[in-house]
Amino acid sequence: MGHSSPLLLVDDDPDLLRLLTLRLKASGHRVVAVESAEAALAQLAISLPALVITDVRLPGMDGLALFDEIRSRHPTLPVILLTAHGTIPDAVEATTRGAFAYLTKPFDGTLLLDKVAQGLSLSSPALEMEDQAWRSELISRSQRVSELLAEARLVAASDASILIRGDSGTGKELLARAIHRASQRAEKPFVAVNCGAIPEQLLESELFGHVKGAFTGAMDSREGLFQAADGGTLFLDEIGDMPMPLQVKLLRVLQEKTLRQVGANQPSTVDVRIISATHRDLEAAMAQGLFREDLYYRLNVVALHLPSLEERREDIALLANHFLKTTAAKYAKRLTGFAPDALELLSLAHWPGNVRQLYNVVEQVCALSTAPLIPASLVQRALRTPTLDLLRYAEAKQKFERDYLIRLLKLTDGNVSDAARLADRNRTEFYRLLQKNGLDPRMFRGGEESVFAERQA
């Protein structure tokens, strides 16, 4: 049962060091034992262990400083702290900063072995790098997330439809992408569509495509997202927002593995694995007649639940430091980390917006920080003010423009002359704006030839 990487044991008491080494070796572990934090850092520079067990009280650099050093260099490496009675508060504080566990001396040998086994089950990134690539975007050391990923890994191998539940901002699309990467479809496309973000009139054509002449002025055929995802995975986010008529069509695709483009006479076959996600209560929606029961059972073959950030508080410091690193690179700023009281604020805060909100807070404090170490005062300020998604000016402008054009076209039923007049632009310029934003005025026309009229009674 030995691991490819040894355990690193750090204690300045030679008798205890010998005893623990014997006990761990008897359980099949390889052990490297050293008597100081300085020796441990030298050892870490030579090769990465699977897990570190260190006494808190050490001569010279203490175990907590060693833990901080390990955390900054190797954030996924589990550290178990051994504490004498007087250092318990320090160890408790270190676990909020991301230490895996602490044990108070004298401790039961089997308890240590249990903690080591748990820690190793989480430290697999250090052991099986190549096997971890699929989940690299989901940064966590929480037991709950670890169990969820083990489950996700198992279902990825099948072709079963998966429904991911979780609050907004918990990372449902990241999990869907990870499942795709771990599946046999990994080489084929992963296509994501947010059913709540696309106007109802556009959604059918987005999903299923349309043929030339499907409605007045349809000059060309266009494939939908189902065809784009053929052979791969289609991720339907906010599936609870899908309108009833489209639920019927989606069910047909899932049952028959064929789809009919808008305006087409012949169905075409399609091979797609569906992963859907929702933060809504679908059971309540079914009870109200807003969501089809038969579709629900088709989509919910396997249900995975993403915990909220508050249910995985031990990940907050890890995520904050990771986001700090990526944001510092983005802004080309030299940022070394958070002051301890700033990290504590983040760890204890209320996170209704989950990981996405944490990212926004970190991005905001990185943009505003004038010192390499981010102070608590900046974090306090960012937590008090509701965070904007910090869009670049160009992104914000583009988003406004697209939403504005959609509202105009809805208002004028797709009449370009009227829409251009309201926008105070000439037709040619208005058409160019529509083209740039990938909008087709024909999609907004009501009446007989509407692309969205139900074709099958």
TrEMBL record:
Domain Response regulatory: 6-120
Residues recorded as bearing 4-aspartylphosphate in the entry: D55
InterPro entries linked: AAA+_ATPase, AAA_lid_NorR, CheY-like_superfamily, Homeodomain-like_sf, P-loop_NTPase, Sig_transdc_resp-reg_receiver, Sigma_54_int, Sigma_54_int_dom_ATP-bd_1
Domain Sigma-54 factor interaction positions: 138-367
Segments forming a coiled coil: none
Origin superkingdom: Bacteria
Keywords: ATP-binding, DNA-binding, Nucleotide-binding, Phosphoprotein, Transcription, Transcription regulation
A matching Pfam family: Sigma54_activat
The keyword DNA-binding is annotated on this UniProt entry: yes
Keyword Signal among record annotations: no
PANTHER family: TRANSCRIPTIONAL REGULATORY PROTEIN, TRANSCRIPTIONAL REGULATORY PROTEIN GLRR
Protein name, per record: Sigma 54-interacting transcriptional regulator
Organism: Herbaspirillum chlorophenolicum
